[in-house]
Amino acid sequence: MKILHKIQQLRFAIWMLFMVSAALSCDRCLHKSKVASDARANINGACGYGTSATSLTTRGGLVTASASAKIYREGVGCGACYQIRCTDPGVCSKSGVKVLVTDFTKNTQTDFVLSARSFSRLAVPSKAAQFLKMGTVDVDYKRIPCEYGGQNMTVKVDKSSKYPDYLAVQFLYQGGQTDITAVEVDQVGSSGWQYMTRNQGAIWGMQNPPRGYLSFRLLVTGGYDGSWVWPRRNLLPSIWTPGSVYESGIQITEIAQEGCSPCETGNWTDTYVN
């Protein structure tokens, strides 16, 4: 356990050095790529959200998306929100679509894969049918804060959990524009925080979890600093069951900074048709 703690400290120190080097960066890096349409795209993806993705996208006004390796980042990118716009002014809408990363794509020609219905929303309604036939289009995209209409972050006991020997959790409705890079759990009233491991996408798990009422704390990387965030309440009861959901009472609102050029700090230039 001490070795794992030292490794985590080293990783955090390296990350801090990177963030200091990006001190003149912005939070709206504009990227150019391609987006593909795939009728088989679905919400039951590599992030492990399963049917929870429906409630996430509904409350956040989002659509689900499969993301490339550089965005998925072995699961770190799960739950991140992006705004995507295609670049043909004769076909594309100004707003494009806002997506939630729920899956990983092995397609090396694109950064995102959308369902046919979501893909067609990149175009103005009158051109949606012909747009859908294109299959792959050039786009601009940027990461945006996730917003869930006042909904606090919640903790869901994953279906893979087996009381009392194995505990796996997901953190749903994570707001802001940050990444959860570490999770620790502790019995309420104790000071023996224990690390959980990222098992699959957004799922964190551990063997032989602490007994009794449990609390969690999260290492969130965003802005120019990283910080531990945890609710001042018991999150899991002494006897927990797979599928149970508990509200944390808090919401993450930090905005991550990126080192990039060009730096998009305002609205995109309105060169698209309505």
pLDDT average, as an integer?
85
**Would you identify the regions where 5 or more consecutive residues have pLDDT less than 50?**
9-25, 270-274
Structural class: alpha+beta
State the helicity in percent bands. Answer: 10-25%
CATH class of the largest domain: Mainly Beta
Question: What's the alpha carbon Rg, rounded to whole Å?
Answer: 20 Å
Instruction: List the strand order in the largest sheet.
Output: 1-5-2-4-3-6
Largest sheet: 6 strands, mixed, barrel
Would you mind describing this structure in some detail?
Helix content is 16%, strand content 31%. The strands form three sheets. It has a six-stranded mixed beta barrel with strand order 1-5-2-4-3-6. Strands 11-12-8-7-15 form a five-stranded antiparallel β-sheet, with no helix packed on it. Residues 9-25 and 270-274 have low confidence and may be disordered. By secondary structure, it is α+β, with helices and mostly antiparallel strands. The chain has two domains: 22-144, Barwin-like endoglucanases (Beta Barrel); 149-247, Expansin, cellulose-binding-like domain (Immunoglobulin-like, Sandwich). A hairpin with a 2-residue loop joins strand 13 and strand 14 (225-229). Keywords: Signal. InterPro entries: Expan_Lol_pI, Expansin/allergen_DPBB_dom, Expansin_CBD, Expansin_CBD_sf, RlpA-like_DPBB, RlpA-like_sf. Residues 1-25 form the signal peptide.
